[in-house]
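Supplementary Text 2. Reproducibility record for the structural model of the 356-residue chain.

All settings were left at their defaults, and a single model was retained for analysis rather than an ensemble. We include the record here because the model underlies the residue-level annotations in Supplementary Table 4.
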Amino acid sequence: MNKTEVSQQRYLLIFGVLLFCGAMLYLLRSVLLPFVVGIFAAYFLDPLVNRLAKRNQLSRTLATIAVMSLFLLIMLPLVVLLGSAAVSQVADFMGNLPQYLSGFGAKVQTWVHQLQEYLPMLNFENVEQALQENFGESFKPALKLLRGILSNGFAFVNVLSLLLISPVVAFYMLRDWPKFTQKLMDLVPKKHKKLVQDGARQINRIISGYLRGQMLVCIILGSFYSLGLWLVGLDLGLIVGFLAGVISFIPYVGSISGFLMAMVLVITQYGTLPKIAAVVIVFGIGQFLEGNFLTPKLVGENIGLHPVWVMFALLSGGVLLGLLGMIIAVPVAACIGVFLRYLLENYKHSRIYLER
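Retained model, structure tokens:
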């Protein structure tokens, strides 16, 4: 068997493995969420376990028990206390959404009539008719996407399974993380081991730099928006600000969605220029802080993931696999990015590119 045939078989094997993993991921998407969350928790906590084990000369098991105990002591009370409040607030918001939208439409129609008094030569009847007929329809695609994400993510897996299964998965993955990664590397052919190790280091740098930094950005923005909208006096301002911060892991989508929701609420509840200006100022300051301080300092500008690529990956993952897809979207995007850069480097050193 010559080298060409061996290479073809290798590529077919890799393609077959990727196709099989993708098919299983899609078929089992409804039950994989707690396992993926546990693996991600182990990935986040692994550096802390490594430092604790080396600094205090502890075994990997003891360091894992200490870190997981501290993590659960912090996270479980927050999940129990904030989870029920968040669910009730979201349910209240979704239940009142038609009233908010209709109130917003009524306010806009009032402004149209007032504008028509100042500009009688212009015909606003078509605008008013379009608002009446199409205002509610314009929100259906976004609501459909949201329902799809939630239904795909929690079709058979509820919050209880996350609380019970994810910590167990995180513990065992965290304890055996070095063994797990070593066994994966042992499967790589020796000829390509260095190349795969370099690629794995690049992927780890991208994922750790983006995910850990973006999580801090989301927490800070969510806290800022919630506090700002609460000070403005907006009903449901806390939940809208929190959601705006959480969705901020999708570039630009979080701030735009939060701003639109806050504008609908402030126009419906108050409709006064000072309140509207206050909401605009809150989100303007938030965007200024995110673009000039938070993202450059916490995430970094050289992680190798363009915001448009991240946005496409997250939205595509949400449509295909729901919440599970959005969780794994950035790691998959990082892997694809490293692979494409490798192909481009090889292409620029190939005879096809260098020939004149």
